[in-house]
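hiii, so i know i said id send this last week but things got crazy w the move. better late than never?? heres the sequnce for the chain we talked about at the cafe, plus the structure i predicted for it. fair warning i was half asleep when i ran it
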Amino acid sequence: MQNFGRFCQKLRCVCTPPTSPVRCVKAVGRARSTHCCVSFRPPLVRERYVARNLSTADHRTVKSDDGSRDTDPFSLVGPQLKSLINDIHSELDGHLVRDSELGEMSKYYFDGKGKALRPVIALCVAHAYNIHTDRLDELTLKNQRKIALISEMIHTASLVHDDILDHAETRRGKESVNLRFNTKKSTMAGDYILGVGSKILAGIQEPDVVEILSQVLADLVEGEFMQLQNKDDEGERFEHYLNKSFNKTASLMAYSCKANVVLSGGSKEDVENSFQYGRNIGIAFQLVDDLLDFVSSADQLGKPAAADLQLGLATAPVLFAARKFPELDDLIARRFSQEGDVEKAFRLVTESNGLEETKELARKHCLKAVSALDDLTESEYKTGLVQLADTVLNRLK
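okay and structure toks below
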């Protein structure tokens, strides 16, 4: 493990590439799109909708290579995000019959230090498709914000359960919930978060939306089971990895997008396109996450570096590296359980093109995500979704 710091310093350049090709696709996608949403509302209605839901004071914008203005998606939905954590706290507290340690434990990871990526995706997709379909009423937006809130609750509950299964010691730079409290109580806290989220979901009173988001819970469990399995065949192994990545990470993003577009009254094509956007963004996010496990420090990640190898998990960088170094196959099969396995695997990954190939695969999924927006009506929220693909690809933590 002593060489990790040196390797990480050497390889940080992998995460800071030259200009991202995702930004270039935006202009191409715009030119290729021929869809025009017919609106029966006067332009002023749309302007009021944008003004009501867009915080201009909080805007952070960057310039693309062509000089155009890109809108930061986190600023676009800033007004809806500001009270998100407090609203979750209120929901968790409100469903308790009496004050107890369960309330403290269930709120432990809702500390405002998370990325809030899932609610940002859900809200940007909601606003973009509301404009696309002219679904500009307050009730729709209220229910879509509930989807964003539920997505953060499901995600956080999965972190609680992950930390219990992995015997984690830290999360987001602080003591993990299972270490701070205990395993049994933490398990119940994760279950409680899911229970409250499910009750909020039922309150939306849209059977299709309930069915859509219920799939996420099934996928999360299946993903955990898949993580316990190994595949010997190289082709099956990578497919297994991508399917697991969808179930554990991308499913929540994809189905949250789908649910909000159903609430927008989108067509079948709109619903499918939103699903593909969330699916590909989610897989790209997981690929970059697995890459960062090799190139970022523990301080940046908020958890130990090379954590996946220590857990016996072969992620994309290792699977790509195994094509150049077949000796990794034996290490993968025994889940890096023997002394020196983790260090050897780490070294072989750094000596291969595994990190670059992982980044390239993430880039391809980001391009697919952006392409799924081709037929979406132009708006600042669509621009934000394109920018989000760039953010996911080039993040450092």
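btw Residues 1-21, 23-42, 54-65 have pLDDT under 50 and may be disordered. thought thatd interest u
miss u guys!!
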